[in-house]
Amino acid sequence: MLSLVVLISGGGSNLRALLEASEDAEFPARVVAVGADRDADGFEHAEAYGIPTFATALSNFPDRDAWGEALVEQIEVWQPDLVILSGFMKLLPPRVIEALGPNLINTHPAYLPEFPGAHGVRDALAAGVQQTGASVILVDNGVDSGPIIAQQRVAVLPGDTEHSLHERIKPVERELLIQAVLDIANGHINLKELATA
């Protein structure tokens, strides 16, 4: 049984999907704690399932490295097998990635390496592409540049707005994340091998 710490910044829809999946006794992973870089709305999902939460705000620390050290300390209390960045909108300092990798994965609303960064959906629309997608990746020291675990295309429809396109990407992202967690738990994906490939 994989133990998961999920890091969020917003509403936590992927977190909710993981919590719902883990209601199935056959699902081989359980969320043990939820963290954020602020008092996130998604904490409501954790509280509904009785999952402990913690917030580690960058503004409370003198610099990013000190914040990263504190974040690692909070996460390591739970001794997770896997840490999932799910809508976590802060870049992690190298020390955090070194401490938690390769068992550190991220979801992204684009078909990487296309449209990395905080505005993947907006950037896809601005580029006028006919399709974008969703990805689950290993976290490295770049911006959405780690090895790809899973991804799927999503069509851009005429008249799409950033909101309408993102709403169609989200369910694909959730499915990819849950399947990735399953594949990691069942040994179909080896994160150490992926990190060194």
TrEMBL record:
Site residues (Raises pKa of active site His), renumbered to this chain: 144
Record key words, sorted: Purine biosynthesis, Transferase
Pathway(s) this gene product operates in, as recorded in its UniProt entry: Purine metabolism; IMP biosynthesis via de novo pathway; N(2)-formyl-N(1)-(5-phospho-D-ribosyl)glycinamide from N(1)-(5-phospho-D-ribosyl)glycinamide (10-formyl THF route): step 1/1
Domain of life of the native organism: Bacteria
Keyword Transferase belongs to the record: yes
Catalytic activity entry: N(1)-(5-phospho-beta-D-ribosyl)glycinamide + (6R)-10-formyltetrahydrofolate = N(2)-formyl-N(1)-(5-phospho-beta-D-ribosyl)glycinamide + (6S)-5,6,7,8-tetrahydrofolate + H(+)
Residues annotated as binding N(1)-(5-phospho-beta-D-ribosyl)glycinamide: 12-14
MF (Gene Ontology): phosphoribosylglycinamide formyltransferase activity
GO annotation, cellular component aspect: cytosol
UniProt xrefs under InterPro entries: Formyl_transf_N, Formyl_transf_N_sf, GART
Active site: 108 (proton donor)
GO BP terms: 'de novo' IMP biosynthetic process
HAMAP family to which the protein is assigned, alphabetical: PurN
Name of this protein: Phosphoribosylglycinamide formyltransferase
